[in-house]
Amino acid sequence: MLRIAKEALTFDDVLLVPAHSTVLPNTADLSTQLTKTIRLNIPMLSAAMDTVTEARLAIALAQEGGIGFIHKNMSIERQAEEVRRVKKHESGIVSDPQTVLPTTTLHEVKALTERNGFAGYPVVTEENELVGIITGRDVRFVTDLNQPVSVYMTPKERLVTVREGETRDVVLAKMHEKRVEKALVVDSSFHLRGMITVKDFQKAERKPNACKDEHGRLRVGAAVGAGAGNEERVDALVAAGVDVLLIDSSHGHSEGVLQRIRDTRAKYPDLQIIGGNVATGAGARALADAGCSAVKVGIGPGSICTTRIVTGVGVPQITAVSDAVEALEGTGIPVIADGGIRFSGDIAKAIAAGAAAVMVGSMLAGTEESPG
């Protein structure tokens, strides 16, 4: 016998009632908690889709205060590399800069530059002692790329170096005095400890609302599946420095997904984990009990999602979000509304329904930064 569970609402079914406000638009605070330990300056996440989020879009979104999730439709090595690209893009002090040996050829340096997108590499010995730096300016007019970097590098006597813990003002003063764009961080034995670039300082000044970790690096997330064999992918992403892991499935309230979350939480107790997708309060509570740091809600509302069409399953998104928020009340675990966001007003409606943030796909798929 057919049983109607209850009436449910989606974005087009509701409007927000206006009321008196004392907040000026330019003083509005859009910051929100993605998880208990990760705060966003705007409540927007980019979808982990192969037409939406790779490193370039994740960088652009993090610079504006949101966070991007690198999709999983690629090799483990490439996904980890995409995460590393975001983490190294605007890092203040690069704690583990890419280095080369004095015997490295200029041809190899050129290949590194094409792969990484930057041209400055500290030159170190096998014992990590700094001996120089090679930059694009050093080799701009060199035609014989088979020569070692030791021939053209700037030697350590002419480098600008700073000790660990130097303040930003001191570092900038030294760089300005020597008219250089890079300063190398060394210890008392002249072993390399990091690198600072003036471009990173400039980027930080231009994007004051950027979403960054405690080391000044842009934040980034990455998606993994719930099936067997994803352990290696999780390990690689954690090693690459991912800030938050998304364990993604079209039906998050299933034992396979829940077990994957439990196993990942057991191995990485401090890792921030988002689980999804669910569309009911019971599903949200199950993900929280399994160890999720945040819960993603939405089955079928996305513009290209076929779950509702193929399976006949789903819950209208406003009601799904509201039910999940109610089920998680008192836990401190945020809810993310994923899918169905077509207009900016839908973001406001999702937040009014209780979501801490929204995940968007189609709104970003046509941007220059998306892989398209």
From TrEMBL:
UniProt EC number: 1.1.1.205
Keyword flag Metal-binding: yes
TM helices/strands, residue ranges: none
Pathway per the UniProt entry: Purine metabolism; XMP biosynthesis via de novo pathway; XMP from IMP: step 1/1
Cofactor(s) required for function per UniProt: K(+)
Pfam families referenced in this protein's UniProt entry, alphabetically: CBS (PF00571), IMPDH (PF00478)
Keyword Oxidoreductase belongs to the record: yes
InterPro entries cross-referenced by the UniProt entry: Aldolase_TIM (IPR013785), CBS_dom (IPR000644), CBS_dom_sf (IPR046342), IMP_DH (IPR005990), IMP_DH/GMP_Rdtase_CS (IPR015875), IMP_DH_GMPRt (IPR001093)
Catalyzed reactions per annotation: IMP + NAD(+) + H2O = XMP + NADH + H(+)
GO biological process: GMP biosynthetic process; GTP biosynthetic process
Name of the protein in question: Inosine-5'-monophosphate dehydrogenase
Domain CBS: 93-149, 153-214
